[in-house]
What does this fold into?
Amino acid sequence: MTRLERDDSDIIERIDHEERVFSGKLVKVNRLDVTLPDGRPAMREAIRHPGASAIVPVDADGLVTLVRQFRAPIGRVLLEIPAGKLDHPGEDRAEAARRELREETGLSAGKCTHLTDIVTTPGFCDEVISIYLAEELTRGEPDPDEDAFLHIVNMPLSELTERVLRGAIADSQTIIGALMAQALLKADGHGA
It folds into this structure.
C-alpha cells in the first residue's frame, strides 16, 4: 500500500455539532464543533456554498472566449472562463455551465465535455466547481445577470495557457480549465 492509498482513519475529525451563524445571499457560515483524532474538542468555521460550474469555450480556430470582471472580495478585475453558481440544489452541473456560457458570452455549445471537479478552498469552504470544455460553438447575444458587468475577450487557448504558466492568471478555475482543455485537445489531435 502506498502513502496515497493508506488508511486515514487516524486523521479523521468527527463533527459533533453544526450551527448556522450567518446566512447571506450566496453563502452560509456555520460553526462546527468537532472531536479531533486524539479526542480533544475543537471548533471549525465552514462556509457552505451551493456549488458552481465553469466552462472553457474553444472554437474551431482554437480561440477561447473569456470574461473580464471586477471581483469585489479581492478588489480587482480578473480574466476568467465563464462561470456561475448553481441556481438550485441538484441542478445539472453541465446545464449550469451551458447557461453561464450563454448568459455571459452569448455562445452555445454543441459539445460539452466534463474536465474535472475542483474543491476551491477546503480549509474553510465546501464549494465544488465543475469545469467543462465547450466545443462546436454557435454565437448569440449575451444576457448577463443584471448585476454582472463584464468585458468579453477572445484569445488563442495557447496564449491563455502561456499566461497561466507565467503566473499572469490568478483565477483557479481558469488556470485548471485552461490547462486541462489544452491537454485534452492536444491528446485528441487538435493541437490547441
The CA atoms of residues 46 and 124 lie 5 Å apart. The first helix runs from residue 93 to 105. The chain has a mean pLDDT of 94.
